[in-house]
Amino acid sequence: RAQAPIEATKRHLPNLPWEKVPLGKPFWQCTEKELKGSPAAPITYVFKSFGDIHTTVPVEPHESERAGRFVRQAKTECGIHTRTTSAGSPHGGALVDLMIKDAGKAKDLVNSCVKTVELNERQACDVFCLLHGAFSPLKGFMDETTYNAVVKDMRLPEKQLFGLPVTFDMTDISGFKQGDKLLLKWKGEDVA
User: Fold this and answer.
1) Separation between Cα atoms, residue 47 and residue 169, nearest integer Å
2) What are the E-state strand segments in the chain?
């Protein structure tokens, strides 16, 4: 509740001239009288859109929830809703399925490996997510360029939203050289 309007681009600042009032229920279940209080406040603000302090500010009850999104930035959406995907389609538009279904091809790949690595549980989880497309559109662990783009901008180099760096961490790389094919095992079973 405020005595005068507060500019939307400033509603994230601390110590503003408003009174925060717990209503005990969602604002949409409150009457106008409950929102304004007694005596009635000239201006009331509510959170219609939930985000963090950097992207979401309260709006007046009659305003659209979009009025409180990204008010200090030149955008209105977070970026997760892109034109590359539609409802029901995988992130990036196509499911990346890295499973080898041909037994002969799988055997040839295993035989071409020069080193074997036993995965820990977290590494195995990442490998399974890559294999089954949970990290689509990734087709493997991130290279340095992709990693840096995701860490800096939370986007792949192709500009698709991707906030999680997916890397294969190893504590000891002695004996490995660039280009080595690795057989990844989980609990003794060949995985990738």
Assistant:
1) 41
2) 115-118, 182-186, 189-190
Report the largest interatomic distance among the alpha carbons of the chain, rounded to a whole angstrom.
80
Distance, CA of 46 to CA of 22 (rounded, Å)? 11
SS (H, E, C) 22-63: CCCCCHHHCCHHHHHCCCCCCECCECCCCCCCCCECCECCCC
Q: Following DSSP, what letter does each residue of 61-116 receive, concatenated?
A: TTS-GGGGBSTTTT-SS-SSS-TT--TTSPTTSS--------HHHHHHHHHT-SEE
- State residue 85's pLDDT score: 47
Residue 148 identity: N
Taking only the tens place, the pLDDT of each residue in 136-187 is 899 999 999 999 999 998 888 988 888 889 998 888 888 888 888 998 999 9
What is the tens place of the pLDDT at every residue in 95-106? Answer: 888 888 899 998
Tell me how far apart the alpha carbons of residues 40 and 97 are, in angstroms, rounded to a whole number: 59
Q: Please tell me the distance from the alpha carbon of residue 144 to that of residue 76, in angstroms, as a whole number.
A: 30
The reported pTM is 0.53
Radius of gyration for the chain, computed over Cα atoms and rounded to the nearest angstrom: 25
